[in-house]
Batch of 4 targets.
Target 1
Amino acid sequence: MNPMVSPPIDLATEKRHLGELAPMVIKVALAIGVLGIAGTAWLAYGAHDGGERFYRSYLVAFVYFLSLSLGALFFVVLQHLTHSGWSVVLRRMAEAVAANLPVLAVLALPVLFGLHHLYHWSDPEVVAGDHLLQGKAGYLNVRFFLIRMAIYFAVWAGLSRYYFRTSLRQDETGDPGLTLKMERLSGPAIVLYAVTQTFASFDLLMSLDAHWFSTIYGVYFFAGSILGFFAMLPIIFYLLQRSGRLTHSVTTEHFHDMGKLAFAFTVFWAYIAFSQFMLIWYSNMPEETGWYLRRQQGQWAWVSLTLLFGHFVLPFLALISRYPKRRRGMIVVPTMWILLMHWLDIYWLVMPEASEGRVPFSLLDLTCFLALGGVFVAAAAHRMRRRALVCEKDPRVAESLRFENA
Amino acid sequence: MSTALIDNTYKDPAVRPTLVLGGQDFTSITEKVCGIVEAPKPPRIWYICLAVAAGLTGVLFAMVGYLIVTGVGVWGLNIPVGWAFDITNFVFWVGIGHAGTLISAILFLFRQKWRTSINRSAEAMTIFAVVCAGLFPAIHVGRVWLLYWVFPVPNQMSLWPNFRSPLLWDVFAVSTYMTVSLMFWFMGMIPDIATLRDRATTRVRRIVYGLLSLGWRGSNRQWHRYERAYLMLAALATPLVLSVHSVVSFDFAVSQVPGWHTTIFPPYFVAGAIFSGMAMVVTLLVPARQLFGLKEFITLHHLNNMNKLVLATGSMVGFAYGIEFFISWYSGNPFERFAFMNRALGPYWWAYWIMVICNVFVPQVFWSKKARTNLWIMTIVCILVNVGMWFERFVIIVTSLSRDYLPSSWGYFKPTWVDILTMAGSFGLFLTLFLLFLRYLPMIAMAEIKSVMPQAGLEHGAHAGHGQYWGEIPHQHEHQFDELNGVKR
């Protein structure tokens, strides 16, 4: 045998199920989740503000995990749209994360209960005294908002379930026709995704300040979501490999590519963030600048600067070289940092609307994060407890196992 | 080789399409591509096209000369519409260039091996489009002889350009773009030019191609450095795909003109640029592949992929139109609302609807594979896309300027014959340059395309994974890898 030829990777000898790890992960995640829920309940009950603070913290945590699942759904659909081969061994985990979207539909309920606390356009008295909001009432009203939410989550749940289930079916049958089916749906799917994702970001986040508007907002939220997902993906595989799973099939090349994508979307996020900021700053029109002024005054100025350096400059420098991207232990450090910054980004989108000049960090932010994070991880682990962690009979799996970054 | 080509657009997920058809091997590729350059005479139709294009270029120079001698008053623009055909043409041509950079840089980073058949000509198109683009702001300034003032050159008047103006950022963005694109294009061509030099039968060719090939010997070390440099340039050109048209969009978006100032402009301009550029690549390559018999290289699979990109970027543009319209209503700003209603229903309604129909509705036929692989349909669609994208810039620029805040200073722009002939002339210049490129430079990247053929053996042995996957992807569970790797169990 040619010594330069690496031996073929054989999926059959690979540990590719969660197995005994699943119950443990589920237990720990649920324990954290329950702890988070209990803490949240205790703190929210003790706050005596009618839940005001709770709903905001909850919205941040909810949108954060929603964005990760939406990023995963985009990744899955995009791989089918481009007939991608390299990513086949990564796709199952993305499918599993995206399949949390039906769970998130349930977790959206507290946001809906807190509608009046979060969105001032939902208060008829406020609208009656606000000429601008009257003009928008055809779109920004409670009933239409609920209808839209139902549509978004129906689309997301439908797509994520379809892709997860069809892919699982292929594990059993090995039918390449299923790949064709998934590819055929990917075109319409990406259109639906673009529309729902954009308007969901308008509804959930932009309408927190219903006077303000920005046409790029949907792209901004999209960029953050995708970056969050690409930051999460290498961490998932790092942890799986640490536990002895997929040790051969997810290669250095895959980590390198995940790192490249995290790098690319770090820059893309910065590009979109800069475009929005620069154009509003330069034009200096009062109906637009208020949103940024709130984020530049008082303590928020420090958060904005943290985002500039922490969400862009640091990850940019950390990920630009080839060296860390090809080392599993190294790549996860900047990506964990990006995940943290992505949370801060969402926080920065939500919180200044209710707290001018002061960054209202509170334990509730942490407990809501733990509550939703625990449920999020437990749901994904539960879903994967008996499933293969790779799309093992995808017709292109061999290509994925063998590709190299030349 | 004139036998019917197999349909390599056939979709079997377990089979990667063959990228070069017709049983070509390395020798036949060199013969074919160099043959176009070395043939004693190009096809007759090439002469006809060149005559028309060169004639139009003459018209362009005549118009520019007339403009310089007489003044910008020969154009139809005047207050309030101070930018019209000139800036429309500028944005249009810069946009056209973007597809070339996308194909050569971004698709390279994405390991899209099919790009090897089309990247050379697409990059050439980029250069020529930027040449046409650069012309318009230059002649628009009025006193062309003072154009060097746009550069921050130290001078006796201590006169500096306004660094806060996006028009100055344009100067930097477009000149950077031109420089990097030119380097990328030329560097990529060196091995192929060396091939032409080595095959040269005349003294002139030996000298010219010899000079251009910069002493290329094809040694291992040269190839190694070449490939590293190529990767670096691709990485440098990738942000340019986004930045150049973003800066162009700043020209409008930093202002307070309703219809110009909107935050989605940067990514939306980039999508539109790639959209129009990709349509232009298809428009140019369909006739070129027929004319020079390159159907085996630029196959239906390639055209299918490009048309998918046209559909994707066109849908992004259409979506952005929708978002702009929605937010103009949602903003509650009466000026914004007016600007968009005025586009659709005002005096320039015809331009708006040409834009919407050509850019949003027409490309939707590409959802059908039949349309994506039919040469006539794709040519017509892509020409319409180019018409639509020209009108998009016209709509943005002219309708917004013609009616802004003060109804008393509204106006209506009408192009003069000089406007129209200058625009037509720029197409002449673009086509002249492109036709000369087709005849005198290797229009297909020979060295690159050979690496994506089975004969390159890049899917075997030590090179496993470096090359294009072609043909059937081995099935994992059957231990077929052993066979591929030559392992005996």
Target 2
Amino acid sequence: MPNARVLRDIKARHGVNANEILRRAYLYVARNQTLPPQVRFQAQLQLNTFGRYARPTTVQNRCTETGRGRGIISEFGLCRYQFRLKALAKELPGVKKASW
Amino acid sequence: MAAVAPSRIAALTRLRCELFQTSYNPTSVRTGAKYLRARLRGPSMVQYYPQQLTVAGFNRMGGGFKIQDWDEHQRLADVEEKKRRGKGAPKKAKSPAESRRMSKRR
């Protein structure tokens, strides 16, 4: 069972996925300087009605093993310690401990 | 070499936009096109965490075969036991005034 922060992140990811197209449409209207200001303002108000789990900035990549939120090596989706453990156990293809 | 008139340069830019099917926007007005042009990020975002098979997920799949979730069973039993001993979760506050957060502030 993943920890609560991971569950929250999963929720945010699904929220972003579900609302993305609608948000993009409102963003297009709100940021379009060729449209009348009133229309743009209404679009901005609509953007503000989305919850926090609809914004892509809420999503944070966490460690897929431990759920840690800092020190993530994004290529592997692992935190630095899990990355080290897995690399030393030869579970990450192409990763080798440096030695010279 | 003589300087080229600005109107000639503008005409050239307009023609270039026409040829390469780009929009002619000499004053750089923000049209919001970048929000339509950008790829959707949701589908790849959802796939970040690897799929994990849980007991509840397995039971939801259907197929006429259910397995007992003993961990969940144990958790519910523990909650019941705690409630019986008066150590359960407090009652939900009916109004903001009786919430714990309010009483702390006082």
Target 3
Amino acid sequence: MTAPPVQQAAAITTFGLGRSYGSGPTRIDALADVSVEFGQGRFTAIMGPSGSGKSTLLHCLAGLDRPTSGQVLLGDVDLTRLDEKALTHLRRDRIGFVFQAFNLVPTLTALENITLPLDLANRKPDQAWLDVVVQTVGLKDRLHHKPAELSGGQQQRVACARALVSRPHVVFADEPTGNLDSRASADVLGFLHRSVREFGQTVVMVTHDPTAAAYADRVLFLADGRLHEELADPTAESVLDTMKRLDSSSAQAG
Amino acid sequence: MLKLGFRSVLAHRLRFVLCTVAVLLGIGFVSGAMVFSDTLSAALKKNFAAATADITVTPLSPLSGTPNRPPTLSSDVANRIAAVPGVAATDGQLLVPDIEILAKDGRPIDTYSLATFGASWPHDDRTAPFKLVAGSAPWGTEQLTLDRNTADREGYELGQKVKVVTPVRAVTATLTGFTTPGRSGTSAGAPLVSFDGASAQLLLLGEPGWTSIAVALQPGQNPDAVSRAIQTAIGDTVQVRTAAQVSADGESALDDTFGGLTAALLLFAGLALFVGTFLIVNTFAMVVAQRSRELALLRAVGASRGQVTRTVLAEALVIGVVGSTLGLLLGIGVAGLIQYLYQRLDLAIPSATLQVSAATIIASYVLGVGITAAAAYPAARRAGKLPPVVALRADTTVPERSLLVRILLGGFLLLMAVLMFLIALTANGLPAAILVGLATALILLGLVMTLPVLSRYAVRALMSPLGRQAPIVLGRRNAERNPRRTAATASALMISLALVSGLVTIAASAKASVDRGIADAIGTSELVVTGDGGRPFSTAVGDRLANVPGISAVHRVRQSAGEVGDQRVTLAGVSDRTLDGPITVEVTNGELGSLAQGQVALPRNLANQLELAVGKTFDLTTTTGKHRLTVGAIIEPNHQLDAVVTSLPRFTELGGGQIDATLYLEVADGTDLATARQAVLGAIQDYPSVAVRDQQAYAAAERGPINGVLGVVGALLGFAVLIALLGIVNTLALGVVERTREIGLLRAIGMDRPQLRRMLQVEAVAIAVFGAVLGLLVGVLAGVAVQHVMVDDGLSVLDVPVLQLVGAVVIAAAVGVLAAIWPSQRAARLDVLRAIATE
């Protein structure tokens, strides 16, 4: 591995992050002692078998879930010290989301969905930036359609545009291509990739698809709630190899 | 299938609580009304059974109603009945209503709207309607007895002086005895004063005669046979009834007294059930839409259409049974409470234990279960029609059915309603008002049908002033997204508010009309003398007032009942010169001078109704039979004289009693009004129930009953608001459950709790204001139309109480805000991660 030293400031840093459910003998550690940095302007993928804690990690990073131990620093803000209201406003102002499905509010048009975080914050969108984002996702002629009138791929691109429009500190994507065919997937991933390259956006994506992970600069592998390995400048093949290796090692361990 | 249904109810407790409450409220009022009226009639039956002679003979009035001067029979009739074979004894009896007993402080005792009777002392124990329990029978005009209840309540003891006011005169006499009704001695019945026979005729009637003749039979005689023999002997001028018949008639007469209360309870019941139906329809539609995948799965694993339909209906059944049971209990509670309150008031209403009849129980369950099942049926049928593939589809939303059928049907109804409205507006009087009512009902029905189409535009228009902030736009869109649901929820409020605003408009117009009518009709007379509750009073009052210094003239108006054909009319006798100024009368046609020749004057609306004109003749039936009258004048509708108007001598010839209904006093020049009023009050202080008022006070007193109506309308509004609240809470709560994922998404991308609450509030307020505004428009339209067609029948002035109506809309909006509290708390508590993960 020839991981380059991290030159940029970290967008997110975690220290000894842990998330457990239940207590006593029924206690389950979904995450245990995860310390990791996510560089600014970098596209990081998180992978791992189901139950490995990758979604829990993403939720903790994004302020949707509260870790039971450790710290999450978003820039210089410690998420674990924020109350519910502050967390909500932080998600609104500094974080962008793309979920696997059901990303859009069905009663709002594509454009209204895109500007929703800004509207909730009572902020005016930066028209030039909005135009750029819309141009990039290629939805200019579908802006006034309701989600029900858009294809799955178009809906995910609207979601991406919404995630970007407030120029968030980080965009989190949770299996953004899980429900899409390969062509639509390529569109969405290409768009996320460009946002990193062209706009310097920081993106953290959870996926189980090696092809999707190949779009990232770096892949983190999780297993049993722990950070297991990482891969810089991945290709679909190298990701697949690593996954196989992890599988067999965990099979041996199990 | 019942088991599945039952499980489903348990699994979704929350949503079914609201449906159950709706059923409960409706059935509660239905069963409350039934239990109350059963209890009352059981008590009345007990009294009548105890108080009746074997056979009762009463004069047959030519009039169907009860005139204020009772028709009488002579002692001669009693003698002829005594000669009929099988009759052991007869006893002439006198029973006269409209008596007042004065309490020790000189005020009339409060009878809580029950009539007070004066009676003659019975001669024969076998036929006595009441009996002595202490003291001795009265003798002469200086002695009387009271019923024990009244005496106890007022603290009268034997030997004390008691004042009573009869339609003939005021009497002060010594209390010699206490009575209780009937043989069984049950405490019950109206207040009763009695004198010995001859004194009773003098003091109560002012002339000889009996109001009934009680007959005792010889042992072993058949009452029916003897009663037929009496009928044959006396002829068809009398009514002959056996004890059983008297009981039955008496019950129905007394039932009428409390009919109003029962009717009010039933009105609330109707409203509750109606609104409840909407709530249930809504809930089940949502439940089926939400569970479509689960239901389709049932179909996929082999359940038939019917079975799926029945699963859903089974849930309705559980709700219906639970709601009806609780409602029945609530109803018994309500009836018990009313009875308790009456007893606390010390009201002399007959008491009996609460009667819960089989009919009440059956009606409660049939109505409760029937309405729930009927309301759930459309959704249940739709559930049965779900194709099994829905179970395999990812997207679980059921497409909205087309609204075309609704638009066509609703449009047709609206068109019909508009036509009916136009027809009604060309006519006038009560039939036209009823037509307006029917047209309004049709409009409401048509609107309920087309509301989903309207709601989209109306909600947008109504909510646009709130601005374009994200939570507001989202709330508004939520109200628009499911037009059927919004419409059904708003319908409930629309109907309630239409009812309320229509009634308020009519009542306000009635008030304004009374004011204008009195101001227009009363001319130079400055003081108006009336009896409490519109009861007539002795002519002695007028005689005395004529001699009061400062009073320059006393004008009398007497009233009695009559019939023209089968139309009931009021017959009014007016003293000379009354129409020359004290009462302002506008003559349309003919001459008022004709009254002196025995002709009559008719208000224009009455003349139109009876199709009469000046110079025509018609037959008027009064207590003394048929009389042919000639129309001498047609006058404009007059608030004080809505009657066939005659001169006083002619009034007496037509059988009208020597009792005054209203006196109009003219105050002499130079005498101050207040001084004159004091002098008048001083002259008639032993007639405490006779009131002397100036014009304003008189108008206020005349408006009094309308305030009572407004009170009921207020209660109706409060109740409607409560139920509407339930409906909106229900819709919002279901919406929150249904949109769990969407709410999770909104929370994830940064909607805070206050914004979430705002979003739900906007949706609730949109529904509430939409329903309220529409209801208000329809109600006011109906109210205005009713006033228009009744312009000659008591509603001469239109008054739309804008302030109250705006208040109603504000209340509706507040209800929306209130309704959002609980659902938004639920929504705010949703865990974001779990909400997003929800299927």
Target 4
Amino acid sequence: MHNLKASNISRFFGFILFGVILLIVGNSVDELRVYQGATVAMYVVAISSIILLTGYSGQVSLGHGALLAVGGYGAALLRNNFNAPVWLCFAGAVLLAALWGALLGATAARLSGPYLAGTTLALAVGLPSIANQFKFLGGEQGLIFDIGLPPASLGEMFSLYKWFFWIASLAALISMWWLQNLLRSRYGRVWRAIRTQSIAAELAGIHVARSKILAFTVSAGLAGLAGALLSMTISTVSPGAFPLTLSFALATGAVISGVTTLGGVIIGAVTLVAIPEIADSIAHRIGASENVTNNLPGLLVSGLLILTVLFVPNGPVEQMKHRKKVHI
Amino acid sequence: MFQILNTFLIGITSGSIYALMAISMVLVWRSTRVVNFAQAGMALLSTYFGYEVVNRFDSYWLALPVAMISGAVVAAFIELVFMRVLLKHSNSGPIASIAPIIATLGLLGLIKAFIGFFWGNQDVNIESPLSTVGFSIGTQTLSLSPMKLLILIAVSMLLLVLTFVFQKTNIGLALRASAYAPEISRLAGIKVDLVRTFGWALAGAAGGAAGMLQTANGNGALSPDSLEFSLLLAFGFIAAVIGGLDSLLGAVFGALLLGLVLAFVLTYVGGSLVFITAFVLLLVVLIVRPAGLISQKAGRRA
């Protein structure tokens, strides 16, 4: 017990230390990298939401983009209609998405495997057409989501992108820290039990359906936060910002990170941001045609996804742990 | 009255295309217990092969069988070199249940990227081989054009052929047997792996036909990111689930039902609700009858 507390405290300081490092790094790199950093932080939140759902409670969602959209629209509506402060927009996004998640989860808990995957996929395919129908959601153009300029106290040199980076990183750090603790709590253990052996879990007195709905709700809340962050970095919310490819990219990121542990989440997030750039430089070097340049990122991501599923199905982090154990 | 007839015709036509897609999902599900989310990508690829034939030989009639055959070859290839390895590799561990789903997703991405490599991301066009102007009765125009008639005839013929293969031939018997009880089939001397590959090939052919017909039924445009194909995937899946993922008859029934319901919603309620209707229909069926409207006897094993 004593150990647990100590590791809790050290983890907390670990997160703070990580935050300080981010702060220093954020100050020393150029604008583009800072912007990419904000995107990485957004992906960290989104991917961890999928890892929580898939890796810990065994439910698959191919339509997380839809939940991100709920968060993004929620934040933008709060900002535009009530002129709410930024933090309130994010909190609202989390709550709204979690509410949707609870509704979806109630249905999802009855489905399993491919049925759930297909249903969420259908949702992600249909989402743009649904969002297009409502006037107050701004149709095809969507809504503007402007969080305003960074506070003057941070100095004149403080750029908007750096402000995005700060907000996104802080949000990611807080949610990671909270999620770490949650997964080590009773709920985390219950979810893992359900994933490994849902019948045994039920026999042990766990209310499987209720726990699954809870997992879906928490996951949706995180997805909503990620959606608000995403909308912040691109300053708008529109159906086009949450395409099917986003949902697939998030699922890919989760698998590359290793769906069973939270530890690798940064791997997936960095990969998703880095791959377009890597693809670009490869295409440049070999002097590829326009067709190849456009499709190389997709090829790399999908190839990586398939290789991961084939060779390190539990993700690189878990694989390394496993190897160490074998050696000892 | 006339409007009801027209709506009915539109629904049956689109429903019959969804039926092909649903059948290809059911065939794959029955043979390998995988819901193949790459099905739309495979259909898209075979449609592009068809496009290439139309381009070179200027004949849709040649392109249709070419698309079907290439679809079959591609699907069989994927099953042989990819799915078999994958299912052997990841049959245990925490992500065993989602690995096939994720893998077919990766496959979808790969196929789209390949299409982009060779044909680019811009729209290409397949001219409809027959007139898309409806027949007219007196002063009114029927929503039944020669092209729609072709679709209906082609789909019914394919369904007849499939039924014949399944019910009257040895290979059809082997397909049914290895879907129902793979272990026993193996003992009875059926080469289950080979039969599975054949199931995938049939699915690929059905998908190729669906892609060619859907493109000609729509505006003829074709692109790797086409929404039509995402919708084909979603509606195919929904139709297959409505009918029951295990039943070919169910897939056809589910698809026609879905096509009709969507057509009536489109005409009488409005385009905005089409997708929501499909989604609600899916959820209702999943909650009320998870095994599908036409499911085989209880007691079948998953």
